[in-house]
Amino acid sequence: MEDNINYTFKKIYALHSDGIFRFCLVRVSNREQALDITQETFLRLWQTLLEETELKNNRAFLFTVAHHLIIDYYRKKKSLSLDKMLGDDNTSFDLPDEKGNVEFGAEGRFVLNKINSLSPTYREPVYLRFVEDLSPEEIGKILDISANAASVRINRGLEELRKNTGYNT
Amino acid sequence: MENEKIGIENLKKITMTPEEKSQVFQNILNTPLIAKPPIKSPYSFISVFTRHNLSYSLAFCLLLIFFGGASYTYFQKQSLENGRVAMINKGGISDNNSFRASNFNQKALPNNLNNTGSTTENSIPTDTKTGANAKMSASTISAPSATMMSPNDLKSARASQIIYQGTGFSFNYDSSAKITSGTLSGGGSYVEISSTDKYNSIHFYPGTLPNNFRPEFFASTTLINGKTFYHGDVQTENGIQRSYMYKKGGKTIVIQNDTLIDLGSIEIN
Lengths: 169, 269
Fold this sequence. Notes:
Chain A is mainly α. Chain A contains eight helices and no strands. Chain A folds into two domains: 1-92, Rna Polymerase Sigma Factor, Chain: A; 105-169, Arc Repressor Mutant, subunit A (Orthogonal Bundle). The termini of chain A are far apart. Chain B folds into two domains: 45-77; 98-268, Protein Transport Mog1p, Chain A, CATH 3.40.1000.
């Protein structure tokens, strides 16, 4: 039974660990903190699997847990807002290319800055839709809103993003 | 537009290094799992009492009800008509059962304790013969008469040995008192004994008591000279007056006040 859980967990971890880490890194702008939240997220998954709780959508579950852990992180760190941290050059997140593994080009940084400049309502739906390729239904579950509301936020966020980037011209 | 896609692709390339991925995985597997107890619902019956201040509110309400009831009972026992409050009993005996009456009209003596017969001599002033209910309507109650004396004290205070031999009963009464007798409309006879500031009456019923006698009024008993007297108290303008009832062989005597009568000497013939 436990071997089966181990196998399932390994499979889920291999599939979604990078996405969860990326989501956390973009939100908290600190690589070590992102790793901690990622670890905690998968620990919750591990506990859930041991309790033999049926998960209908592993990815949505992981993003939901990560989303809540990030909220908890900022609640504990009340004095520093995400916007402030992102706007501070000294606290910008460690780029993957600094670890020598992945190149993080100027376009990526540009798009990320534009996504982060979106209003908070649209920031996460746009990111989850276009970077993590989640469906509006999954985004709705993660943000605890309806799929329709998620879809509306994605479209409005995309319009705002295009205005900011000028790509729609 | 192309740059946007390139940017998103760049974002997707943000990943953990293999070392980080392996380390996080090992950390997860090596983390001792602490069995957490299930979170109790905040809306369960017990949780309401253990987790919320509602328990304090409930306790406060219960205390309020308890002390409210106690206060109501206490002041009902101690109060006068129209809600006036007075401390009546001062070191004397009191009838523990009389407070069960919910109002003063119920506490008052039954109507058939009033003078219903015809007087023959030394008639009592009308306002003193109209019964306990009428007496209670007076606006003041004198403090000295509000202090009760025990039956034994009254007995020792009476020195008279004059025997009144009425129809069916006899008793000793104070020699300074005047006596009036008559017949009751419902059958039986009565005797009224009065002095300057005191008044007693004895009603004698040779048969069954009238129906409007309330048994609960005579709920307490006192043993006087080997005789068991049932008694109850009533508040009048002259203070608390105690009425006694004595039964023997199907005959009953009801005595209102015993200030001029030696209860121990009462005999039913």
